[in-house]
Structures are given as structure tokens and as C-alpha cells.
Design a protein that fits this description.
The protein has helices spanning about 20-30, 50-60, 80-90, 115-125; strands at about 5, 10, 15, 35-40, 70-75, 95. The chain starts with a strand and ends in an 11-residue tail after the last helix. Helices cover about 35% and strands about 15% of the residues. The chain has about 140 residues and is α/β, with parallel strands linked by helices. Strands 1-4-5-6 form a 4-stranded parallel beta sheet, with helices on one face. A two-stranded antiparallel sheet has the order 2-3. The protein has 4 helices and 6 strands; from the N terminus they run E-E-E-H-E-H-E-H-E-H. The longest helix is centred in the middle third of the chain and has 14 residues, at about 50-60. The model has no long low-confidence stretch (mean pLDDT about 90). A hairpin with a 3-residue loop joins strand 2 (about 10) and strand 3 (about 15).
Length: about 140
């Protein structure tokens, strides 16, 4: 099984703003090529809930099944949890994260680390959504 990835869904360090329709087109193509799931990454961390909403609308308009979508948000401007919540409201059920927010995009100047899995697990706990993470409070 192959999982596809679309990086820089909100902004690109080389090309600037990214059109949600283009994200949807590339995502649909990856699924057509046989990927079982596509992770949409805000690699630079410039995404906002409004942009995430527009991406989800574009996916729906393109006929992309939401159950084939995962999300991966960086927390450069503190928007990762809000972006994840927006994706969850559209039915996304798979979220990439990392322990303590480690990692990041070394090729994207200024991009901070990934969203911390403990922050995601805590937010999900607040919505009574089972994450499988053993969070000790």
C-alpha cells in the first residue's frame, strides 16, 4: 500500500500562496494512481482555518473521498490545532503529529516543528474522540 503526500497546501517558500483547487487536483490524481490515502501537509505552517476550509471544499468539489484524507500541520504561527479542528469538522479522521512537536521542514526557511501529538491528543480528549494515545493528565 502506498500513502501519498501533498506538501505546502497553504503556502510554498518558492511560489507563495497555494490554490486550494490545485491541492484538490493533485490529491485526486494521487488517489487515481492508487494511493490508499493522501496526507495534506502545511509544510511551511502558514495555513489558517479559513484556508483549510477552502481546501476541504475544493476536495469535496473534486469528488475526493474524505476518508482517504489525512492532515499534517506545522505550528509556525500557532494555527495547527485550529487547522486540525477544521479538518475534523469536515470528517477527516487521520492526523499526523510528532512527540513534542519535533521535526520540521529544513528546506522551508522559518518553518517550525510539527504539531505536538500530546496537544492533538488533549484536544481530541476534550471532544471525547478516542485517539489511542495514552495521555496522562
Amino acid at each position: 500500500r502506498v500513502r501519498g503526500y501533498v506538501s505546502c497546501i497553504a503556502g510554498c517558500p518558492y511560489e507563495g500562496a497555494v490554490d486550494p483547487e490545485r491541492v484538490a487536483e493533485v490529491t485526486a490524481k494521487l488517489l487515481e494512481l492508487g494511493c490508499y490515502e493522501v496526507s495534506l501537509g502545511d509544510t511551511v505552517g502558514v495555513g489558517t482555518p479559513g484556508h483549510t476550509h477552502k481546501v476541504m471544499q475544493a476536495l469535496q468539489a473534486q469528488g475526493v473521498p474524505i476518508e482517504c484524507i489525512a492532515v499534517h500541520f506545522h505550528d509556525t504561527y500557532g494555527q495547527a490545532l485550529a487547522n486540525i479542528l477544521t479538518a475534523l469538522q469536515w470528517g477527516v479522521a487521520v492526523v499526523d503529529s510528532s512527540v513534542a512537536g519535533l521535526g520540521g521542514g529544513p528546506y522551508a526557511a522559518g518553518a517550525s516543528g510539527n504539531v505536538a501529538c500530546e496537544y492533538v491528543a488533549y484536544m481530541l480528549l476534550g471532544f471525547c474522540i478516542e485517539s489511542g494515545v495514552g495521555l496522562v493528565l
